[in-house]
Protein backbone atom coordinates (compact mmCIF):
# COMPACT_ATOMS: atom_id res chain seq x y z
CA UNK A 1 0.00 0.00 0.00
CA UNK A 2 1.21 3.51 -0.70
CA UNK A 3 0.09 7.07 -0.07
CA UNK A 4 0.50 10.18 -2.19
CA UNK A 5 0.11 13.89 -1.49
CA UNK A 6 0.05 16.62 -4.13
CA UNK A 7 0.42 19.98 -2.45
CA UNK A 8 1.10 23.57 -3.50
CA UNK A 9 4.67 24.83 -3.23
CA UNK A 10 3.77 26.83 -0.15
CA UNK A 11 5.27 26.79 3.37
CA UNK A 12 1.92 25.62 4.81
CA UNK A 13 2.32 22.41 2.81
CA UNK A 14 5.39 21.40 4.81
CA UNK A 15 3.31 20.70 7.93
CA UNK A 16 0.62 18.88 5.95
CA UNK A 17 3.06 16.52 4.24
CA UNK A 18 5.24 16.01 7.34
CA UNK A 19 2.17 14.99 9.35
CA UNK A 20 0.73 12.84 6.60
CA UNK A 21 3.93 10.90 5.93
CA UNK A 22 4.57 10.57 9.67
CA UNK A 23 1.07 9.18 10.26
CA UNK A 24 1.47 6.76 7.35
CA UNK A 25 4.85 5.53 8.66
CA UNK A 26 3.44 5.08 12.16
CA UNK A 27 0.38 3.25 10.82
CA UNK A 28 2.71 0.92 8.91
CA UNK A 29 4.40 0.00 12.19
CA UNK A 30 7.61 2.03 12.10
CA UNK A 31 9.02 2.96 15.49
CA UNK A 32 8.58 6.43 16.94
CA UNK A 33 12.32 7.07 16.52
CA UNK A 34 12.27 6.29 12.80
CA UNK A 35 9.01 8.20 12.31
CA UNK A 36 10.71 11.27 13.81
CA UNK A 37 13.61 10.92 11.37
CA UNK A 38 11.22 10.49 8.44
CA UNK A 39 9.27 13.61 9.40
CA UNK A 40 12.43 15.73 9.70
CA UNK A 41 13.81 14.46 6.38
CA UNK A 42 10.51 15.08 4.58
CA UNK A 43 10.36 18.60 6.03
CA UNK A 44 13.88 19.35 4.77
CA UNK A 45 13.27 18.04 1.25
CA UNK A 46 9.88 19.72 0.81
CA UNK A 47 11.36 22.99 2.11
CA UNK A 48 14.14 22.67 -0.49
CA UNK A 49 11.56 22.18 -3.24
CA UNK A 50 9.72 25.32 -2.18
CA UNK A 51 12.76 27.54 -1.59
CA UNK A 52 15.20 26.31 -4.24
CA UNK A 53 13.00 24.57 -6.81
CA UNK A 54 10.21 27.09 -7.20
CA UNK A 55 11.97 30.15 -5.75
CA UNK A 56 8.71 31.83 -4.77
CA UNK A 57 6.85 30.88 -7.95
CA UNK A 58 3.66 28.80 -7.89
CA UNK A 59 3.86 25.07 -8.46
CA UNK A 60 3.10 21.70 -6.95
CA UNK A 61 5.05 19.13 -5.02
CA UNK A 62 4.25 15.43 -5.11
CA UNK A 63 5.20 13.25 -2.17
CA UNK A 64 4.84 9.46 -2.33
CA UNK A 65 5.41 7.04 0.52
CA UNK A 66 5.44 3.26 0.19
CA UNK A 67 6.38 0.40 2.49
CA UNK A 68 7.67 -2.96 1.35
CA UNK A 69 10.89 -4.17 2.98
CA UNK A 70 11.62 -0.51 3.86
CA UNK A 71 9.89 2.86 3.75
CA UNK A 72 10.57 4.75 0.53
CA UNK A 73 9.61 8.43 0.33
CA UNK A 74 9.87 10.29 -2.98
CA UNK A 75 9.51 14.07 -3.29
CA UNK A 76 9.07 15.50 -6.80
CA UNK A 77 8.93 19.11 -7.90
CA UNK A 78 8.88 20.58 -11.40
CA UNK A 79 10.74 23.78 -10.52
CA UNK A 80 14.21 24.91 -11.48
CA UNK A 81 16.08 21.88 -10.16
CA UNK A 82 19.35 21.88 -8.26
CA UNK A 83 21.33 24.88 -9.42
CA UNK A 84 24.07 26.63 -7.44
CA UNK A 85 22.95 30.07 -6.31
CA UNK A 86 25.10 32.70 -4.58
CA UNK A 87 22.00 34.38 -3.13
CA UNK A 88 20.65 31.06 -1.85
CA UNK A 89 18.98 31.33 1.54
CA UNK A 90 20.24 28.91 4.15
CA UNK A 91 23.62 27.29 4.55
CA UNK A 92 23.06 24.20 2.43
CA UNK A 93 22.96 21.78 5.34
CA UNK A 94 19.46 20.36 4.68
CA UNK A 95 20.47 17.53 2.36
CA UNK A 96 23.40 16.65 4.62
CA UNK A 97 20.93 16.24 7.47
CA UNK A 98 18.72 14.05 5.27
CA UNK A 99 21.75 11.96 4.28
CA UNK A 100 22.38 11.25 7.98
CA UNK A 101 18.73 10.47 8.76
CA UNK A 102 17.92 8.17 5.83
CA UNK A 103 19.36 4.77 4.97
CA UNK A 104 19.76 6.00 1.38
CA UNK A 105 19.31 9.24 -0.54
CA UNK A 106 19.07 9.59 -4.32
CA UNK A 107 18.69 12.89 -6.18
CA UNK A 108 17.75 13.22 -9.83
CA UNK A 109 15.31 14.82 -12.20
CA UNK A 110 11.76 13.60 -12.77
CA UNK A 111 11.26 11.61 -15.97
CA UNK A 112 10.07 13.76 -18.86
CA UNK A 113 11.06 17.09 -17.30
CA UNK A 114 13.99 17.76 -19.69
CA UNK A 115 16.38 18.29 -16.80
CA UNK A 116 14.02 20.57 -14.88
CA UNK A 117 12.69 19.81 -11.45
CA UNK A 118 14.03 17.49 -8.82
CA UNK A 119 13.19 14.01 -7.65
CA UNK A 120 14.53 13.10 -4.22
CA UNK A 121 14.15 9.52 -3.05
CA UNK A 122 14.86 8.55 0.55
CA UNK A 123 14.63 5.13 2.16
CA UNK A 124 14.27 4.30 5.82
CA UNK A 125 14.55 0.92 7.51
CA UNK A 126 11.52 -0.62 9.13
CA UNK A 127 13.55 -1.41 12.27
CA UNK A 128 15.56 1.10 14.29
CA UNK A 129 18.71 -1.04 14.33
CA UNK A 130 19.26 -0.50 10.60
CA UNK A 131 19.42 3.32 10.77
CA UNK A 132 22.70 5.06 10.00
CA UNK A 133 22.25 7.69 12.67
CA UNK A 134 21.18 6.43 16.05
CA UNK A 135 18.70 8.36 18.13
CA UNK A 136 21.34 8.91 20.81
CA UNK A 137 24.66 9.47 19.04
CA UNK A 138 27.66 7.72 20.51
CA UNK A 139 30.01 10.01 22.43
CA UNK A 140 33.05 11.20 20.50
CA UNK A 141 35.35 10.08 23.29
CA UNK A 142 34.64 6.66 24.81
CA UNK A 143 33.39 7.00 28.37
CA UNK A 144 36.28 4.93 29.77
CA UNK A 145 38.79 7.37 28.25
CA UNK A 146 37.29 10.56 29.63
CA UNK A 147 39.08 12.40 32.39
CA UNK A 148 37.25 12.70 35.70
Folded structure, characterized:
There is one protein chain. By secondary structure, the protein is of the alpha+beta class. The chain has one domain: Histidine kinase-like ATPase, C-terminal domain (Heat Shock Protein 90, 2-Layer Sandwich). The chain has three helices and five strands. Strands 1-2-3-5-4 form a five-stranded antiparallel β-sheet, with helices on one face. Strand 2 and strand 3 form a beta hairpin. Helix 1 packs antiparallel against helix 2 and helix 2 runs antiparallel to helix 3.
By CATH, the superfamily comes out as: Histidine kinase-like ATPase, C-terminal domain
Tally of strands: 5
CATH class category name? Alpha Beta
CATH topology: Heat Shock Protein 90
Average pLDDT works out at 83
Distance between the termini: 53 Å
**What structural category do the secondary elements indicate?**
alpha+beta
Per CATH, the architecture is 2-Layer Sandwich
Question: Which structural traits does this protein have?
Answer:
23% strand; Heat Shock Protein 90; alpha+beta; 148 residues; five-stranded antiparallel sheet
Give me a quick take on this structure.
With 148 residues, the chain is of the alpha+beta class. The chain contains three helices and five strands.
Give the topology, please.
Layout: E1 2-8, H1 11-27, H2 32-54, E2 60-67, E3 71-77, H3 94-101, E4 104-108, E5 118-124
Antiparallel strand pairs: 1-2, 2-3, 3-5, 4-5
Helix pairs in contact: 1-2, 2-3
